[in-house]
C-alpha cells in the first residue's frame, strides 16, 4: 500500500505511522516548576542524538487547558532549563502508564503513580528512585515543529546515574532491567535478549 500523510488516505482504522517507526525508547521525563511541584510524564518520541557531548531529545505534542502552550513538562523546562530522563524498565511499566494520565498542573505525578522521588545531583529536577538509569539534562534548545503544539526539546546530559548491579564486566547489561519500548497503537515491547554484530573493517 501507499498513502500520503497529508491526505490521511491510508484507509486503515488506525494510523500506521507510529507502528512503522518502532520500537521507540521511552523518555520518562521528570521536571519541577518554579513552585517546587514535580511533574513526570512518558514521551515515546525520544532518543539520543550524539555522545560527545551526550545529547538527547524528546518531542511533545498537544496542549493542556491549564497551560499557556504545550504540556506541563514543556512549561517546566521553559521555566527552569532542566529535566531528567528516567529509563523505564519492564518492572516499571504500570507506574509509567499511570503517569501518562492528563492531570492538573499542580498535581505531583510521582505521588499519583506511587513512585519514590529523589533529588538530582547536578540539576534541580527530581528523578524516579526506582529507575535503573537516569540522565540529568540541561536544556540546549527548544524547537517549534510544524503542526499544532508540536515541540522538540533538546538537552545536554550533564549527569548519569546507573544502578551498580546493572554493570557486568564493565558494560551496562540491559537484560538485567529489560528496558521498555513503545510500538504503535497501545502496544509495547521489552528487551530481554540481545545479540552482537561485528562492524566490518
Task: Provide keyphrases for this structure.
201 residues, mainly beta, Pnp Oxidase, Chain A, 3-stranded antiparallel sheet
Please tell me about this protein's structure.
With 201 residues, the chain is mainly beta. It has a single domain, classed as Electron Transport, Fmn-binding Protein, Chain A (Pnp Oxidase, Chain A, Roll), CATH 2.30.110. Helices cover 12% and strands 36% of the residues. A hairpin with a 5-residue loop joins strand 13 and strand 14. It is globular. The N and C termini lie far apart (38 Å). 29% of the residues are buried.
CATH hierarchy class name? Mainly Beta
How do the strands line up in the largest sheet?
3-2-6-9-10-5-4
| Helical content band | 10-25%
Question: What's the N-to-C terminus distance?
Answer: 38 Å
The total number of structural domains is 1
The shape is globular
Number of DSSP strands?
14
User: Which consecutive residue ranges, at least 5 long each, have pLDDT under 50?
Assistant: none
Question: What is the structural class?
Answer: mainly beta
Topology pattern, helix = H, strand = E: HEEEEEHEHHEEEEEEEE
CATH architecture: Roll
Radius of gyration from the alpha-carbon trace, in angstroms: 17 Å
- Beta content comes to 35-45%
Q: DSSP helix count?
A: 4
Q: Determine the CATH topology.
A: Pnp Oxidase, Chain A
What is the CATH homology-level superfamily? Answer: Electron Transport, Fmn-binding Protein, Chain A
Average pLDDT metric? 94
Please outline the major beta sheet. Answer: 7 strands, antiparallel
Amino acid at each position: 500500500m501507499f498513502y500520503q500523510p497529508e491526505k490521511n488516505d491510508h484507509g486503515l482504522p488506525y494510523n500506521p505511522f507510529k507502528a512503522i517507526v518502532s520500537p521507540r525508547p521511552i523518555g520518562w521525563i521528570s521536571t519541577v516548576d518554579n513552585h517546587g511541584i514535580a511533574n513526570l510524564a512518558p514521551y515515546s518520541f525520544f532518543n539520543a542524538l550524539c555522545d560527545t557531548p551526550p545529547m538527547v531529545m524528546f518531542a511533545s505534542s498537544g496542549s493542556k487547558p491549564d497551560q499557556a502552550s504545550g504540556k506541563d513538562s514543556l512549561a517546566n523546562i521553559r521555566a527552569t532549563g532542566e529535566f531528567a530522563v528516567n529509563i523505564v524498565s519492564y518492572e516499571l511499566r504500570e507506574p509509567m502508564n499511570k503517569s501518562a494520565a492528563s492531570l492538573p498542573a499542580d498535581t505531583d505525578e510521582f505521588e499519583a503513580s506511587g513512585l519514590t522521588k529523589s533529588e538530582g545531583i547536578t540539576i534541580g529536577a527530581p528523578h524516579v528512585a526506582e529507575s535503573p538509569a537516569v540522565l540529568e539534562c540541561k536544556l540546549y534548545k527548544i524547537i517549534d515543529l510544524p503542526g499544532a503544539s508540536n515541540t522538540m526539546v533538546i538537552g545536554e546530559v550533564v549527569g548519569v546515574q546507573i544502578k551498580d548491579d546493572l554493570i557486568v564486566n564493565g558494560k551496562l547489561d540491559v537484560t538485567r532491567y529489560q528496558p521498555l519500548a513503545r510500538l504503535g497503537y497501545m502496544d509495547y515491547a521489552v528487551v530481554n535478549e540481545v545479540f552482537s554484530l561485528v562492524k566490518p573493517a
